[in-house]
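Ticket #4471: complex job returned nothing on first submit. Input attached below:
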Amino acid sequence: MKALCWHGKNQVSVDNVPDPKIINDRDIVIKITSTAICGSDLHLYNGFIPTMEDGDIMGHEFMGEVVETGKAVGNLAIGDRVVIPFNIACGNCLHCKKDEWSLCDNSNPNAQLPEKLYGGTPSALFGYSHMYGGYAGGQAEYARVPYGDVGPYKVPEGLTDEQVLFLTDIFPTGYQAAENCNIQAGDTVAIWGCGPVGLFAIKSAFLLGAERVIAIDWVPERLKLAQEAGAEIWDYTKGNTLEYLKEATGGEGPNSCIDSVGMEAHGLSVDNVYDKAKQLARLGSDRPHVLREAIMACGKGGTVSFPGVYGGFLDKIPFGAAFAKGLTFKMGQTHVHRYLPKLMEHIQEGRIDPSFLITHRLPLTDAPQGYKMFKEKTDNCIKVVLKP
Amino acid sequence: MTYTANPYNLANDSDATDPRRIEPEDIRRADLPPSAPLHGAHGYPNVALPERIVSGLAGAALTTFAVTKRRDVSGAALALAGGYLMYRAASGHCPGYAALHTGTTHATTGSPTTDSPTAVIPHGQGIKVEKSFVIQRPASELFAYWRNFENLPRFMDHLESVTIQDDTHSHWVAKAPFGKTVAWDAEIINEIPDRLIAWRSTENADIPNTGSVSFKPATGGRGTVLKVNLEYLPPAGILGMAVAKLFGEEPNQQVSDDLRRFKSLMEAGEIPTVEGQPQGNKEGFTHRKPLLKTTM
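Support reply: We reran it on our side without changes. The output follows.
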């Protein structure tokens, strides 16, 4: 089959590789009908996630048709259309039973790596480095899906691939980010980053009862989509974001802040130049400019929610500000399985159509160009969907 | 899916009257056969901790008194006695107790038997590993799987096979470098159904070893705490290389990996793996080793 493989920083190619097969009894194999490039794939593309190996198949947002089921999978039939959560979870461990699927104890064959680095292992992920299990990803024609009896979610009749594809990651991720904010009626939520996750966080914040959402970015087409989603927009290159947020909220600060940017923040602030230098010199893995700003901006007693990915040791974090204002921090990979029934219902009822952010549809063979375009934000690129 | 507080209704471990409760001594005896130290030449601990503290304080007082107040022959004798007490305190070994074949540690309070086996691992020479995992299955189920030693190679990577010979004896074969194997016979020396299994290698083992595995209910009915204690004697030479390969540079990590596989097998019914999955071409690009060093 054809698959998009990682070969090093900024080096990906579509290779001919062997077809996947059933390895464990709970595996299934699906024929992929749609797959997408995620913002977090850019962290791999840019070489910031350790433990990638030459030849690794990328991609964790994918869906398709069941073509083979393992002996222990009784709930799926050949031909079923399914979306696949990007995290791999067994469904049996304490965390899965607590609905904390991205913290699954059992899915990561390389659990000792995050165990050493983080003191505990999150669940494995598709196509996201060996530290996260080394599972082949879904930017391919076929994929093996472990724990096929608990992960894949059947797509109801009448919904297109493009309507449900983003249930695999970015829609639940934006939704969890907003849910983590414990939004109360009348709340104002500030959201850094109007990429796909940020845009879903905006829509989710409104679904959960926020009165105002302030969206922060600089890319015009992203700000445009944010505005269309109902957010007030702020181009951070136009002035001081902290002062703007203060003024926009009558001096109170937003009730909650969402950092949907993560470890590769852009911008020319003093702290970000310092972070960038550190990152280039491999002295640090993260550029936590947004994290710092969100903490400083957040109103007293508020919540800062981090759907953006961080990987290592951060410094110059205004922890004193967080303490003084009694802030709550919520973070972590998304428990996709938890949100699928509810979000599928939102889509079926027409309350949201996730396909609004697709800007590019490419054949899988053009994936390398898709990566380059998405990274450089050329051609107004916001979201690339690949068709194998 | 909702989280059930106590899915297996496991007994609360705080109940001291629970007949299945493991006393620390059960495991200690398993690790160190009561008779073993009595055959050791010297140096093994036979003085219990409280006695060592008292011995140390008394020894220090006696020595201080001797050198500051009595500068004659009786002072020298007192200083010698003080030094002896401090040696017992520091080493935990009392030559006097040893001569009398007694002591105040758990290992020495048991009565010597006539047919006592030799020590599996001389004191201080073995490599010890202790590792715990919580597993969301009832203790009885975990015990039953483990008690059938022939199951162990399924999750212990370095084991090739275990053959059960009778109710307490088994033959173990482990992988070694160059396609070779190392082997030993083991006997169960303590067993409490659903709670504890302790074993040790018998004579002429390639790798003398002893170990125990215990199963205790976790707090709040959240599964079972499995704890493994292992001690083995790394031999020299080619065998030493084999052992280094078996247990790696970090024996703790090996045991931890094995137990994690056991947990996955018991909870999820299978061991996660990516062996046999497709991967792309490697030619033409720089291979990056899967290390954590670069950016963290």
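Chain A is about 30% helix and 20% strand. Closing as resolved unless it happens again.
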